[in-house]
Amino acid sequence: MATKTASKPSKTTNKSAAKSTSKFSKETYIKWYKDMLLMRRFEEKAGQLYIQQKFGGFCHLYIGQEAIVAGTVSASKPTDSHMTAYRDHAHPIGLGTDVRVLMAELYGRSTGCSKGKGGSMHFFDKSKNFMGGHGIVGAQIPMGTGVAFAEKYNGTDNVVFVSMGDGAVRQGALHETFNMAMNWKLPVIYIIENNNYAMGTSVERTTNVTDLSKIGDSYEMPSKSVNGMSPEAVHEAIEEAVARARRGDGPTLLDIRTYRYKGHSMSDPQKYRTKEEVAEWIEQDPIEHCLRVIKENKWLTAKQIEEIDAWVKNEVEESVKFAEESPYPDADELYEDIYQEPNYPYIIEY
Q: pTM for the full model?
């Protein structure tokens, strides 16, 4: 039975496609469109391949939530760090990781971003300062804050983005972490990717505080709710939070309200919501919004848009080819990347 309908942005929010008078440039909109389209097509293909049993394990798709990554990346700099939960495919794509190594990771191949040992829930790319997807619910909250502590300790002006789902805010570690982060004024931005349903139970059924931005009030942490279907709104909120963090004023909590079009994972029957509710949210699709702005401002011709679509399609096809032609890790890889100390004295039985 469906629960109370998820709180969503106004239907007019993403349909104001008249000629852009915002501060965002043609180049920004095109990048948003291109990046989000690549995220979407990669995950659509991943979903198909998972059903075909090309790879196993769990698979959690980000489809519908792409504007959060797009707006966050455009408002940050390359030396900033990002850490998230296990719905982690879109984050490295937005940061520029080659989709070939991401698909190879899904396949468990040695050419994957985590050498085939992480799979869907454990993407990682230090070269892009993507500090991983993490499978333990809420574990990234204190760990990401530890990265922020290191940045402050080392005297950098880098910021750390820690993303979590609305279900993860129920973890006790969040409160311990928020207290320390505010006390030490750490350069960390907490992003709740609030798709309203956690694994399948709505926010309304799990808490009396349905405005999750209020969680920061106990720690006097600046907090706000953001339209997560709009890359513009996300960028502006992130930009403000980043400026605060770089000034040394500490963390910000952003309750970014979004929606996943698919289930919590590929095995989710989605009986907790209606098809009508999903359709209403799809009307706010951020990719279609960016494309609408691009068309109305005549920033790209129809041919140029087709070329972007073709490039994205080819990237995804190439990623599958790369993955399927890549080798599996050797058995000895079980003992690699575990301890920093070289030649750690394992007792290995054959």
A: 0.93
